Amino acid sequence: AAGRWDDVEKVRKAMVNRGVKKHPGYSWVEVKGTVHEFSVGDKYHPWHEEIYAELQKLNRQMKEIGYVPDTKGVLHDMGEVEKVELLHTHSEMLAIAFGLIAIPDGMPLHIIKNLRVCSDCHTATKLISKISGRKITVRDMNRFHHFEHGVCSCRDYW
Prior knowledge:
The protein has helices at 5-17, 48-64, 80-88, 91-102, 119-132; strands at residues 26-31, 34-39, 109-113, 136-139, 144-148, 151-152. With 158 residues, it is of the alpha+beta class. The chain has a 6-stranded mixed β-sheet, covered by helices on one side. The two termini are 21 Å apart.
């Protein structure tokens, strides 16, 4: 968007006028036979307090090993702090945090996402796999991403 928020607004209005709808992002994780669904900023899950506490812990640990949020893909007219907060509550981050809490240590996490994983979530998931020692598989709309020891099977090409 490079500061062209007037153009962004025009495009969004044109989309509405033409009936074009953007599908919201959802992620799912199965725990003990129950599928749990998450959307960006979701606070409806019964464990949302624990999930957000886990996210805070993960964000702190990621920063300690050099993580810097990539806000270039956040196409909303908001401050940098708000963009970072939005990134940290993407649906796949919520699903991963819940999986880390609810699935026993040593067991892999399997996340399904209906949209493409953004570059920041991809980087964060690599780091979470390193920090947690977990194998994390994320199936997005394009491919399976297998994260282990801080590396993704797509070799950062997706």
